[in-house]
Write a structure and sequence with these properties.
The complex is a heterodimer of chains A (471) and B (449).
Chain A (H helix, E strand, L loop, with lengths): L1 H5 L1 H10 L1 H4 L10 E4 L5 E6 L5 E8 L13 H8 L9 H10 L3 E6 L4 E8 L3 H13 L5 H19 L2 H13 L21 H11 L5 E7 L3 H12 L22 E6 L5 E9 L8 H12 L5 H9 L6 E5 L7 E9 L3 H18 L3 H14 L7 H13 L5 H4 L1 H6 L3 H11 L6 E6 L1 H4 L9 E6 L13
Parallel strand pairs in A: 2-6, 7-11, 7-12
Antiparallel strand pairs in A: 1-2, 3-5, 3-6, 4-5, 8-10, 8-11, 9-10
Chain B lengths: L3 E2 L6 H4 L18 E4 L5 E6 L5 E8 L13 H8 L11 H8 L3 E6 L4 E8 L3 H14 L4 H20 L2 H13 L13 H4 L4 H11 L5 E7 L3 H11 L23 E7 L5 E8 L7 H12 L5 H9 L3 E7 L7 E9 L5 H17 L4 H19 L2 H14 L5 H10 L3 H11 L5 E8 L2 H4 L2
Parallel strand pairs in B: 1-5, 3-7, 8-12
Antiparallel strand pairs in B: 2-3, 4-6, 4-7, 5-6, 9-11, 9-12, 10-11
């Protein structure tokens, strides 16, 4: 790895000629194969031997963005019900068969896509594939299971609200996007979950769970040719049907300041998020963004954590993160501090952001962050589970193996000047959206100064943002 | 997050198993581990794995909150934080900066029993990591200013993990009630009044007590050879002199003679229920049968408790159990999340009925086999990464006295019979041996006096 850094000029020349050979000793993703079945199902196969496990990851290209207005949570509920009753297994039988192998089938939905994953020992592959495909192909959504899951999910939202940190992101996204696009919660809320009915679930499944709308990645201890044959037998007969992609609204950054304070009367600590709408997956600047964010708020010695934790002891942790998706997703600074130091910690976070814009970053910081990302990357592609997910998600976002194989070269290509442009272009300055969860009676006065537009909610009130309209 | 205290330190002890499933020969992988005892008493275990160009290095110190005294509770965990705040060669803030600039990262956790330091780094950073570790083991500095700012960090950590977390809050009260004599009764993070008052002398005393090389075990897994690690150890770690280990913890928790109950009233959306039973320490022979029992009762949606409380009666969102690795007799904790407005007493009753069912009639052959299959899968989950393997090898070495017990777990689980499972259910999971903690939601108006 260090050789690459020193020889970056030579590297650029060589990449053009021998792109694969050059990286043989460097970070690379194991070779894998892509097949598209006649019915449109995209299959990705990656052999990884050593641990006798096989991982399946099916990515359905429609997620919570496909939830009808007022029925937030539908995609997630649909996914979770896949293994709660099929044509040949009750929910209980499915759980018993799956648990008996020690393996698992899990499903959920995020904004951009739904996902179904399976994990089995290779000695149980036949049974595992049968379970995994049963969930995908033959769910029957029994009414009793629908009722049960909806009731549980409703209480799940309430339980999450008992812990401010677990709902900070949900409130922040809702407020940032003002309840549109990625501002709609993929888990649903106390109101939307009561509006979801079985017929909508069946319709969602029948509309979007189609082979042409699915990427199926399999990684682990198997022979690709053999696996391909097995998958063809199981999924080859799944009839194709056209799927109209769901349009995800592209929302621009907020052009003013606003602040939402969610009152949690028993809180002794304020949890806060600050930021704006940022970039989409596949942004041409993504490697530079990752580098700058590593320096700003993406590691222990980041500028944010140094200021708020290491230097001042105001918090246990301060981070920043981009969440790139199909359409531009959020950027946020996230931290927490005791009630009394709420404004002090927010002031400090804002100063660090200003300093980033004014002073930029040093060549030394840039070099450090490059080493850090390179050094920490290999364990993120260590297991077959990680690999199955990565290749499926890259395929979904129209990215390819160069995301990994060229990572080092792309990092090395980021100069201080490019880093500076990245800061100006992608890190917000004056227009900021604030979301705080804390004890209103103790913190409200101190945070008035951050925005003229102030909004308020109480955590026990149903929903996130905007407040539900009175019916 | 980083440098965190962890009561549920690791799943390693409940997860590690390699064994035969019925009809199939033992298939779990064994991997060669090289070992060396340094002259100062530190044991070093190395496992080579060249699949990624990275290394996971763990140092287990046999010191935790069980070695503390009232008045300075939480000092082990606070000390763990101070281990990142400067020594002789790498001053305040330098350790993290140098490590990250060389591609490495680190963390640490403190439990009731051990304090564990973790480094994850590319092979190229290896000499640097040993230099850093040797520096802080022998030349830690105690900067008064750093102590004050770190006190704020730990207070924030406590507010997050206990004061603003219903599960953390109830868990703390549960331990404090289940133990009346043994030091497991106080929280790893420490009581807030102790966090506010620790002194520099408390830290120095703790360092002198717990941080002899002979009180530590190092595990290195990844893109290394045993020879190069042993050479680095000889150069950097072996010259550090040893001293006496911490004094033994002599207090023995007396047998519990009847049920104990506690209630926490606070504003909350949902109630919460925890039930603790005293069980033996990790290296006790009943460890395996107890784990099989807990698997049958709690693991997966086909487990007896899930089927009863979540699926059939629909009174809970979730039900699970936990036992952490422990040097001394500890507790197994059952956690149930009742649905909104459900009386936690209903969940309690259902849990006792399911426990009684195991005591009255033995579990089925299929359940026993399922439990063993689940344990096998968990073994692979633990050892499929270099990080998981380092933690697992270390946990076996420290809590069972020998990392090779990892490879015997197969045999030990296979030997568990239906009768063993029934016996441990009867022995440990009885009414007189339990402590019941309930969190009851209270709205703001009522909460005011």
């Amino acid at each position: 790895m260090s050789t690459l850094k020193k020889c970056s000029f030579l590297l650029i020349l060589l990449v053009l000629i021998f792109p694969t050979a050059l990286f043989a000793q460097s970070i690379h993703i194991p070779p894998h194969e892509k097949v598209v079945f006649k019915n449109g199902l995209t299959v990705l196969l990656l052999e990884k031997h050593g641990v006798p496990i096989v991982n399946f990851a099916a990515l359905v290209k429609t997620g919570a963005a496909g939830d009808p207005a007022g029925e937030e949570g539908l995609a997630s509920i649909t996914a979770q019900l896949l293994r709660k009753g099929t044509q040949k297994r009750t929910a209980q039988q499915f759980a018993a068969d799956s648990d008996f192998t020690g393996g698992s089938v899990e499903a959920d939905a995020s904004a951009d896509f739904s996902s179904v994953s399976g994990e089995f020992l290779n000695k149980d592959l036949a049974r595992g594939l049968d379970l995994f495909s049963d969930a995908l192909l033959h769910p029957i959504f029994p009414q009793s299971e629908v009722d049960k899951l909806l009731a549980q999910s409703l209480d799940g939202v309430r339980a999450a609200k008992d812990e401010a940190r677990s709902v900070l992101g949900t409130y922040y996204n809702a407020y940032l996007f003002n309840g549109n696009g990625y501002g709609r919660t993929s888990d649903g809320d106390e109101i939307s979950l009561t509006k979801i009915h079985r017929d909508a679930i069946v319709r969602f499944y029948e509309t979007y769970y189609a082979p042409g709308n699915i990427i199926l990645a399999v990684a682990g201890d198997f022979q690709a040719a053999d696996m391909k044959k097995k998958l063809e037998e199981v999924f080859g007969g799944w009839p194709s049907k056209p799927v109209t992609p769901v349009k995800i609204p592209v929302l621009p950054p907020v052009k003013s300041k606003k602040l939402l304070l969610v009152d949690k009367p028993d809180a002794t600590q304020t949890y806060f998020a600050i930021g704006n709408v940022a970039t989409a997956a596949g942004d041409p600047d993504r490697v530079a963004i990752r580098l700058v964010n590593t320096i700003f708020g993406g590691r222990f010695t980041s500028l944010l954590n140094e200021a708020l934790r290491v230097e001042s002891g105001l918090t246990y942790g301060a981070i920043s993160a981009f969440d790139p998706r199909k359409a531009p997703g959020p950027f946020g600074i996230y931290s927490y501090t005791k009630n009394e130091s709420t404004a002090q910690a927010i002031d400090m976070a804002l100063q660090v952001l200003q300093k980033l814009h004014k002073q930029g970053i040093t060549a030394e910081e840039l070099a450090s962050a490059k080493s850090y990302i390179k050094g920490q990357f290999p364990p993120s592609i260590e297991t077959s589970k990680q690999l199955a997910q990565i290749i499926a998600i890259n395929e979904f976002y129209g990215l390819d193996d160069r995301e990994i194989n060229d990572l080092e070269a792309r990092l090395d290509a980021v100069t201080p000047a490019i880093a500076q442009q990245t800061i100006q272009k992608h890190f917000p300055t004056d227009n900021l959206v604030f979301t705080l969860i804390g004890k209103r009676s103790e913190v409200a006065a101190g945070v008035q100064k951050y925005a003229e537009k102030q909004d308020a909610r109480v955590i026990s009130e149903p929903g996130f943002w905007p407040p539900p309209t009175q019916e | 997050m980083k440098k965190n205290w962890l009561r549920l330190a690791t799943l390693a002890m409940v997860c590690v198993a390699s064994f035969t499933s019925v009809g199939t020969p033992a298939v779990a992988q064994e991997f060669p581990v090289a070992e060396r005892s340094l002259k100062n008493g530190m044991k070093v275990l190395v496992q080579s794995d060249h699949s990624i160009p990275n290394v996971a290095l763990y140092i287990f110190y046999r010191i935790g909150s069980r070695n503390e005294r009232p008045g300075t509770t939480g000092i082990s965990h606070f000390f763990e934080h101070m281990m990142f705040n400067g020594a002789k060669k790498y001053g305040p803030g330098e350790l993290d900066k140098v490590m990250e600039a060389n591609g490495g990262s680190n963390n640490a956790y403190t439990s009731q029993n051990v304090t564990v330091y973790q480094d994850w780094f590319p092979r190229s950073a290896m000499p640097l990591i040993f230099d850093i570790e040797a520096d802080r083991i022998q030349n830690l500095s105690f900067d008064p200013q750093k102590i004050e700012s770190e006190r704020g960090v730990v207070a924030s950590e406590r507010r997050s993990s206990v004061d603003n977390d219903n599960g953390g809050l109830l868990d703390e009260q549960l331990w404090a009630t289940a133990f009346i004599a043994h030091p497991y009764q106080w929280p790893v993070v420490g009581w807030m009044s102790d966090i506010e008052r620790w002194t520099i002398d408390d830290l120095k005393h703790h360092f002198a007590m717990g941080y002899s090389p002979s009180n530590a075990t190092m595990i290195v897994v990844g893109d290394v050879t045993p020879e190069e690690i042993f050479q680095l150890c000889e150069k950097t770690i072996e010259p550090i002199p040893s001293h006496a280990p911490p004094p033994p913890v002599t207090t023995v928790e007396p047998p519990q003679l009847g049920e104990r109950r506690l209630v926490v009233h606070k504003p909350a959306e949902l109630p919460l229920l925890m039930i603790a039973y005293h069980v033996p320490q990790t290296n006790h022979p009943d460890f395996y049968a107890t784990n099989i029992l807990r698997t049958i009762l709690f693991q997966g949606e086909s487990s007896r408790m899930y089927q009863r409380l979540v699926d059939k009666d629909q009174i809970a969102l979730d039900v699970s159990s936990q036992v952490e690795p422990a040097f001394d007799p500890t507790i197994a904790i059952i956690v149930a999340q009742p649905k909104q407005a459900v009386d936690p007493g209903k969940c309690e009753k259902a849990i006792y009925e399911e426990l009684d069912r195991v005591k009255v009639s033995t579990i089925s052959d299929e359940e026993l086999e399922k439990a063993k299959n689940i344990r096998l899968m968990e073994f692979y989950h633990q050892v499929r990464t270099i990080n998981g393997r380092a933690n697992t090898i270390g946990t076996y070495e420290v809590f069972d006295g020998d990392y090779k017990k990892l490879f015997e777990a197969a045999k030990n689980y296979a030997a568990v019979t239906k009768e063993d499972v029934q016996r441990v259910a009867k022995t440990y999971f009885g009414a007189n041996n339990r402590t019941v903690a309930t969190l009851l939601p209270e709205n703001e108006e009522k909460a005011k006096p």
